[in-house]
Amino acid sequence: MAPTTSTSTSPTTGLITFYDIALAPPVQKTACSPNPWKTRYALNFKKTPYKTTWVPLPDVSSVRGALNIPASRTFADGTPYHTLPVISDPATGRIVGDSFEIAMYLQEQYPSSGAGDLFPVQELDFVFGQNLELHAPIAETKGAEGHITAYVKFNTNVDSAFTAHTQLMLDGFPFDPATAEECKAIFSQRVGAPWETLGVSEDKRGELLGAFEEALSGLASLYKKDVSGPFLKGSKASYADFIVGGWLRMSRGMLPAKEWKALKGWHDGVFGRLDEALEAFAQMD
């Protein structure tokens, strides 16, 4: 299945191409992959003109290969974990294939565009300390310096906290019916277990949801420090908010409706308010 491209404007050579993961049609309604969402938020924050190329899950590896972009992470056995996003910027000829590195690139190349600085100095001391087995490997960001290294650590800890609880979301994965069985086989091979065994039974969901809520308590505390909210820096969004927001998009798209409603209300509703506020940067091209 070939990737498809969408744009709200006439294609021009100046547009960045943003490669996102196509899930169930219509892809604009079901997009809930967390790392591409981090990039979409950043692109919209910077008001950088772009077009989206939607890539079916089974084609992600071949698309990265055609762009000559190596995997940004590996499984425990050393095999590459190919995923998206990727951006290609014709203005500079650069192709970048990791969500955090894309954000750094946008800030470096377009420092004053859009809403300004993606990486303002701020306190980001959330730590997820549980030693849990993570089926999806966490990316290792390269090239960060100075205060941006705090964002790298924050990204790793937020990724770990949500990834440790993604079992809650697997039953709601919006597979494209045309490729669903192929995708399930790919995921099963990656984790070494049949897809049908990866979810959470009804009798255990309550316990895992409670653990998920507790895992996010430290993150919620950061959001409560500036009572003006809804972002970590009050009314000013930053890439840290987009990191959390990407995972909230996954939670919104995959959790059962009643559990998503509960998550929005956890810790005095900080995550519900954040998700709503991020709609300002959620527009599709």
UniProtKB/TrEMBL annotation:
Signal peptide positions on this chain: none
SUPFAM superfamilies, alphabetically?
Answer: GST C-terminal domain-like, Thioredoxin-like
Which sequence ranges form a coiled-coil region, renumbered to this chain?
none
- What InterPro entries is this protein classified in? Glutathione-S-Trfase_C_sf (IPR036282), Glutathione_S-Trfase_N (IPR004045), GST_UstS-like_C (IPR054416), Thioredoxin-like_sf (IPR036249)
Domain GST N-terminal, by residue range, is 23-114
Q: Superkingdom, according to UniProt?
A: Eukaryota
Tell me what this protein is called.
GST N-terminal domain-containing protein
- This chain's source organism reads Penicillium cinerascens
